Amino acid sequence: MKVLMFNTQPYELETFAKIADELNVQIDHTTEALTIDNVDKTKDYDAITIQQHGDLEGEDLYKRLAENGIKQISLRSTGYEIIDLDLADKYNLKVTNVPGYSPRSVSELVLADTMALLRRLKDYSKREERNDFSWTGGQAREIHNLTVGVIGAGTIGSASARIFRALGARVLAYDPVQRTDLADTVEYVDVNYLLSESDVVTMHTPLTPEMDHFMNFERFKKMKNDAIFINASRGGVVDTDALVAALEAGEIGAAGIDVFDGEAGITSVDLGDKGYDNDNLKALIAMDNVIVTPHIAFFTDVAVHNMALFSVRDAIKIANGQKALYQVN
């Protein structure tokens, strides 16, 4: 069995070698993202995995994959919005993702952002650079006295909910599916109540058409003026123009942003002196009450290993005519 990994990163290579030995397969890799220009690299392989920001566009790409004998597209990530599922179905390409690679990796960053914003660590750090060691305006709230709202209480959202509940917070959840295993952890409520009651709001939803720019200015206005907003899910679930406007207008108190509109070509790249063209990102980074990280919520040793392992396992299953564990279509 031969598997080709597209758009590989240096931090994945050691994991690939371990998985190849563990599963007794040949794993080759390329730093290129999968496109119509390099799709014929798949000709000599049984299966592929990808991890990239850009969409897989154009019917010819899906057609060529099928003609080359590929039966699937396995993503080394949770989100699969880059795939045209209609075209995948048309050419009998099964799509898989890895929704449960390490829920703790994301939820721990959400907690870290929340703690840092509550304790105003960015503001204090900037003050110290100016030799200002005063306490003015820095009195913090404690988590056990707060209400945390989780929008999307799936695998990752529920992990976040459990962490905050363990710290004594009241936890509200908005999700069309109400999980019985969270009965002792969250109160399920409608989204307007969650936004108005929560001191911290954290997003954990996929980017579906219904969730595109779900957090708009009107929803930010429903939040408390001192509330913290966290997004470590998908950039597109937030209208970034509205987020910047809400922060500038004092409609919300602070934000922790790990994903954002227009992040392709920015996150995971050292841009050096070239800089980047994203005014909203520049505005967010400049704010003392905002923490921006470059899509690193997933980036832990456990998560990187599981993303590769789960995707390869599912790719092999489909190549062998079996149903994958995390099959999307």
Pattern of helices and strands:
EHEEHEHEHHEHEEHEHEHEHEH
Helicity range of the residues? 25-40%
Mass-distribution shape: globular
- Percentage beta strand: 5-15%
CA-atom Rg in angstroms: 21 Å
How far is the first residue's CA from the last residue's CA? 23 Å
Low-pLDDT windows of residues: none
Assembly status: single chain
Figure out the total of helices. 11
What is the CATH superfamily classification of the largest domain? NAD(P)-binding Rossmann-like Domain
CATH topology of the largest domain: Rossmann fold
Quickly give the CATH architecture of the largest domain: 3-Layer(aba) Sandwich
Give the beta-strand count: 12
Trace the largest sheet across and list its strands: 8-7-6-9-10-11-12
Average pLDDT taken over every residue? 95
Total separate domains: 2
Going by helix content, strand content and strand pairing, the class is alpha/beta
Highest-level CATH class of the largest domain: Alpha Beta
What can you tell me about this protein's structure?
With 329 residues, the protein is an alpha/beta fold. The protein has two domains: 2-101 and 301-319, NAD(P)-binding Rossmann-like Domain (Rossmann fold); 103-292, NAD(P)-binding Rossmann-like Domain (Rossmann fold), CATH 3.40.50. 34% of the residues lie in helices and 14% in strands. It contains eleven helices and twelve strands. It has helices at residues 13-23, 59-67, 85-90, 103-118, 121-129, 155-166, 191-197, 217-222, 240-248, 279-286, 301-319; strands spanning 2-5, 26-29, 47-50, 72-75, 94-96, 147-151, 170-174, 187-188, 200-203, 228-231, 254-257, 290-292. The strands form two sheets. It has a seven-stranded parallel β-sheet with strand order 8-7-6-9-10-11-12, with helices on both faces. A five-stranded parallel β-sheet has the order 2-1-3-4-5. Strand 10, helix 9 (240-248) and strand 11 (254-257) form a beta-alpha-beta unit. Helix 1 (13-23) crosses helix 11 and helix 4 packs across helix 6 (155-166). The longest helix has 19 residues, at 301-319. It starts with a strand and ends in a 10-residue tail after the last helix.
